[in-house]
Amino acid sequence: MFTRVAVAGVICVMTLMPVAAVQPDEVLSDPVLEKRARSISAELRCLVCRNESIDESNAPLARDLRLLVRERLVEGDDDDEVIEFVVARYGEYVLLKPLTGGANLVLWLSGPVMLVIAGAIGLMFLRRRSRSVDTASKGLSAEEQARLDKLLKE
């Protein structure tokens, strides 16, 4: 019985850990603004942790970014304006989902292009290999056989 309660407690604590990153003094009094702030914070990368959103991170810089997001929302910015402001200040790296336009288009397309190139190289290799197997399986010509027989007699 005790182990079941302990496991349930651990599961509850683990599911609530991301919520613990937002401190009570950061929470806005308006629930609509707070919900918007949480959704924006989930889209922004913590520049210290790198694989966490600022909503999940306990780093001091993530706290500063959460406060900045809430400050911009209180000033009346819409969600896109807040994200644009943070990106203008910290760069595109702060976005957890990078944009697919501009210079990032090269990065997005390089994977499929490399796959096509690798497939073409593989097909060329297989064609050359099948041709070389065909010529090797034909055997020796009469001239080559005569030369081999002469060498074996010596």
If you had to describe this structure to a student in words, what would you say it looks like?
The protein has helices at residues 2-20, 31-43, 60-74, 79-90, 104-137, 142-153. It has 154 residues and is an all-alpha fold. The protein folds into two domains: 2-94, Cytochrome C biogenesis protein (Helicase, Ruva Protein, domain 3, Orthogonal Bundle), CATH 1.10.8.640; 104-153. It is elongated and about 100 Å long. The chain starts with a helix and ends with a helix.
Give the secondary structure arrangement, pairings included.
Layout: H1 2-20, H2 31-43, H3 60-74, H4 79-90, H5 104-137, H6 142-153
Helix pairs in contact: 2-3, 3-4
What fold name goes in the CATH topology slot of the largest domain?
Answer: Helicase, Ruva Protein, domain 3
- Tell me the distance between the termini: 91 Å
Name the helicity range: 55-70%
- Residue-averaged pLDDT, rounded? 82
Structural class: mainly alpha
**How many individual β-strands?**
0
Over the alpha carbons, how many angstroms does the gyration radius reach? 32 Å
* Low-confidence spans: none
Indicate how many domains the architecture comprises: 2
Individual helix count? 6
Regarding CATH, which class of the largest domain? Answer: Mainly Alpha
- The amount of beta strand, in percent, is under 5%
Q: Tell me the major beta sheet.
A: none
CATH level-four homologous superfamily name of the largest domain: Cytochrome C biogenesis protein
CATH architecture of the largest domain: Orthogonal Bundle
